[in-house]
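Hypothesis: this fold can be encoded by more than one sequence.
Test: take the structure tokens below, design a sequence, compare later.
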């Protein structure tokens, strides 16, 4: 029997065919035929809805899902989520024009959508265009040739990056030095009085110290933190931070090693040992326990392989934002409480790096970017530290900053430690005889008095203390340092200056009230 050497072409399924089961780039299986794609990949939870979309015909919706399946299989979960969002926004626009049962996207649809976008939203089409062009190149029905040609010819505006940084937005942008110091003070106070747990406390310090993304912290394991001791006895702490956003690697496929100062590394290492002990007998290797475990039962149950008990990036971000916003840290810029989010710590970190003179390459490395295209904003718009804070400015900002944390007393007889002469706070450079006030703390304090006192809750300034003289001295020293040294050094005591100014105001008000009463 003669065999036929000619190739036989088997019938192929239509390009819009959807499999019953698919696997994401990260190895997670899901069901594309369902109208809700819900799964977790690493530390990212995805919930994509494909329910009723009146503007699109059933065949068109099937094509749309086929395109997004390509993104699920070839791109990151974040990118897939963004593409789905842009497509749904475009579908809602088409629906708003009165169209229903649409079988294809035409050049006219693209033009109309472009015309509907305001200046600040023009980048929507830029982000959508890549998906529509991919749709057309894949040969999936739904995007006409004229639409693809038009998108190729249009000059589209990209997503504006760095606006919050460039404008020093008081709600979304970097924190000022005074605001960040206020956050640090609030963190110490909340942790000391037990209203902030150790996990949130240490995570907040890592947010400030490293400027990483929530996904990177959520992916951390106990084994990522190491401690080493040199021959000289010096102890160093190193944290391997997963490069969670890099598109071509898994969440824990690559790492960046970051050194931690002992003040953070030491308590974090002790905390990591507690986590390891807590997971002993729970998972096979306690070293693979998450450094910041999920607290909800659901988060513990649906974790994918390799991320057992890990929180999601969204869950961790929501949790730390809620905890920190509950501290109600005041802002000298708004007069209200700070809006605290992880991204603001990241923007502050990049801003500080630029202020310290680092270039784009260094900042990109510190922020773990693959290139420098999004870090130029930090270098191009380094926010200037206030050239001058005089008495008038200090008095104006003081009530807003609320840096003073203590209680003013009339004299030493009202002090918590009235019978203890060592509780007196005296600054020999300001007044060698008259104390500023009293310290209400019974334990030893190693902080620099009186500079650290005015922002301490245990400080009890006397009504007739030489606060005005101290304010004048601090302002004069700041002016001198602005001329003779680095501006960042000159601004070191800015929050203390505002605290002293607030004490001056409160004392003036109390004395005026007393005078009015005597009158």
């Amino acid at each position: 029997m003669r065999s036929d050497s000619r190739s036989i072409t088997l019938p192929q399924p239509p390009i819009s065919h959807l499999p019953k089961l698919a696997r994401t780039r990260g190895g997670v299986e899901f069901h594309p035929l369902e109208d809700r794609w819900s799964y977790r990949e690493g530390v990212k939870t995805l919930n994509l809805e494909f329910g009723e979309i009146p503007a699109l015909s059933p065949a068109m919706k099937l094509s749309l899902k086929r395109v997004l399946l390509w993104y699920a299989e070839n791109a990151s979960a974040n990118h897939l989520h963004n593409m789905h969002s842009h497509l749904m926004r475009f579908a809602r626009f088409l629906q708003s024009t009165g169209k229903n049962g649409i079988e294809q996207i035409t050049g006219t649809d693209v033009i109309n959508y472009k015309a509907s976008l305001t200046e600040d939203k023009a980048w929507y089409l830029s982000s959508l265009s890549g998906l529509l062009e991919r749709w057309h190149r894949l040969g999936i029905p739904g995007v006409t040739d004229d639409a693809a040609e038009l998108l190729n010819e249009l000059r589209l505006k990209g997503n504006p990056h760095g606006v919050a940084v460039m404008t020093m937005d008081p709600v979304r942008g970097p924190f000022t030095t005074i605001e960040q110091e206020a956050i640090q003070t609030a963190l110490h106070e909340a942790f000391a009085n037990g209203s902030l747990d150790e996990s949130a406390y240490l995570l907040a310090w890592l947010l400030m110290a490293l400027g990483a993304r929530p996904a990177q912290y959520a992916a951390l394991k106990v084994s990522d933190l190491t401690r080493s001791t040199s021959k000289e006895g010096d102890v160093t702490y190193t944290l391997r931070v997963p490069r969670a956003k890099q598109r071509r690697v898994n969440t824990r496929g690559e790492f960046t090693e970051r050194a931690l100062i002992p003040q953070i590394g030491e308590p974090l290492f002790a905390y990591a040992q507690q986590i390891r002990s807590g997971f002993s007998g729970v998972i096979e290797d306690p070293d693979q326990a998450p450094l910041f475990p999920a607290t909800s039962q659901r988060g513990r149950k649906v974790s994918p392989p390799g991320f057992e008990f890990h929180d999601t990036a969204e869950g961790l971000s929501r949790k730390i934002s809620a905890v920190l916003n509950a501290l109600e840290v005041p802002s000298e810029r708004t007069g209200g409480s700070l809006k605290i989010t992880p991204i603001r710590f990241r923007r502050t970190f990049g801003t500080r790096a630029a202020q310290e003179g680092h270039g784009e390459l260094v900042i990109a490395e510190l922020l773990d970017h693959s290139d420098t295209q999004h870090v130029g904003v930090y270098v191009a718009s380094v926010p200037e530290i206030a050239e001058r804070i005089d008495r008038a400015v200090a008095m104006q900002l003081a009530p807003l900053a609320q840096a003073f944390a203590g209680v003013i007393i009339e004299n030493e007889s009202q002090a918590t430690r009235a019978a203890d002469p060592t509780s007196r706070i005296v600054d020999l450079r300001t007044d060698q005889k008259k104390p500023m006030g009293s310290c209400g703390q019974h334990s030893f304090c190693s902080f620099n008095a009186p500079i650290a006192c005015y922002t301490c809750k245990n400080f009890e300034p006397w009504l007739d203390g030489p606060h005005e003289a101290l304010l004048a001295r601090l302002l004069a020293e700041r002016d001198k340092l602005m001329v003779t040294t680095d501006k960042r050094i000159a601004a070191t005591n800015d929050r203390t200056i505002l605290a002293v100014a607030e004490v001056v105001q409160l004392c003036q008000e109390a004395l005026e009230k007393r005078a009015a009463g005597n009158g």
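The longest helix spans residues 494-518. The two ends are 126 Å apart (CA to CA).
Hypothesis status: open.
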